[in-house]
Request: fold
Amino acid sequence: MVKDKQLVLTANMKNYNSACHGFRWDSVFKEISFFKNKKINAAYNAIDRHAEDWRRNKVALYWEGAEGQKEKHTFQDMKHNTNKFANMLKKYGIKKGERVFFFLPRVVPLYVGFLGTLKTGAIAGTLFSAFGPKALQDRLENSEAKFVVTNNALKGRIYKIKNKLPKLKKIIIVDGARKKGEIDYLKEMEQASRDFKVAEMKLNDYAFMLYTSGTTGKPKGVVHCHEAVIQEHITAKWTLDLHPEDTYWCTADPGWVTGIAYEILGPWSNGISQVVYEGRFDPNKWYSIIEDYKVTVWYTAPTAVRMLMKYGTELVKKYDLSSLRYINSVGEPLNPEAIRWGKKAYGLTFHDNWWQTETGAQMIANYACMPVKLGSMGKPFPGMTAAIVDDKGKKVPVGQEGNLVLKPKWPSMMRWVWNRTDKYKSYFQHGWYISGDKARIDKDGYFWFIGRADDVIKTAGERVGPFEVESALVEHPAVIEAGVIGKPDKLRGNIIKAFCVLASGYKPSKQLEKELAQFVKKHLAGHCYPREIEFRKTLPKTRSGKIMRRVLKAQELGEKIGDTSTMAEY
Ligand code: ATP
Ligand code: MG
Reply:
């Protein structure tokens, strides 16, 4: 049996039960740097404190551009550059609480600028670089952004909507201004002082905001405070198991929360060296990043894992991935088949964890010190209370499906949905934070994801979660990816309809449809099999890689699709 290499280093969290026992957030405070009177700054924790200790010459960021350019930035470099950016914002009149949005690919100024903004006390926001003008307008209008930081390739989309954004005052161009009125990042950074007095913020002062993935509907402008860094720090340490000697790679984009919490804030607060790769997904390139930088801890998403599966274990063998010791996944349920494949391909177990933009940090996770049950999200992070309740907020018995809820409040909990106070309030009911996801808990306290509340299918009096049907389908060698919906049916209420993407070498046929239906029937349960199967080349996904079942459903029923601002072309 292949023994997981992660066992080579002692896990930071040695025993789950003891970590939970008597856990207090105060006890994490000793790992965080505060100013006088409990004042804090998340960026100071991520960068400056390391630039002031033995890590000053340690590489914080290994950056590789889409064209293969390579840069290294130490914690000291990052301190100076983020200070310069903060000075530039000050020079152009930024004030505490004002919004600075970053519309950039994964380039160094995004990381420098985000942290530099936090240092001034302003709120940093991110916009995924594939957004079109309408998606940008919605977000910049709602957040009333004052500054946008972008580049020459992307700025045209901002100019298209600029006259509809009276609050937008300045556009900073990171690869050199070319138009009158633009601020030239390169020139300003050259001239700015590398000293800056970091703003001392209250724990609950706003630090950053971003819009949710839009999987279920209109994206929400979720706002987080400086104290979020406390939880991002300890989860990066205990869930991602980051050690000082690790080289870490998170494949998420800071346009989404994973890229902020587990690229910018959590890992750097732990003083970790990390790799950022600007380019797109490409299996060869991804493996060479792991090989070249000797990545030890890797954090990715199910959609990427499924794509890597498509390329098979043969490709894996062409690379030396022996540096890897611990691998993690987030964003969607991780199919058991993907975990089994990961074990075969890398000799490691993918550790799945569950959280949301709104929760600001990992909430339920599989930890290095705990056995993984394939398909389970794991257990609540110490200090968090998670439960499965009915619509009145009452806990349901073990094994029963219900609403996945959390006990407020926690340090990284969102504090507002920008300009949508009613929406914000609607998350809190019966003393719980309502996640909008359905799940169940087993007798050992592991949580199992069932589906988004809106996606659960009622068929012939039974409730079926799309995830279990999808997972059963991808167990079949012909299926790479599956999206499952309920399709209204006179007799049964709904029938299960599956949309499948086939592996190379397989062709759609009636025979295959039958075979897949039988396969699910046999592996799952008689009532859970898809009565209809449609083969597709791709599935509709958010740009953060989540299957958009509501789009499949709307297409099936010939209804309006709704907000598509985060939908990737497919
Ligand atoms: P929106 O709220 O706009 O519809 P979204 O919920 O997809 O979009 P995110 O905050 O990016 O936006 O995603 C959080 C959601 O992703 C969770 O509520 C859950 O449905 C799903 N998710 C994340 N991680 C996991 C996981 N490990 N297992 C199952 N589902 C997950
Ligand atoms: Mg959501």
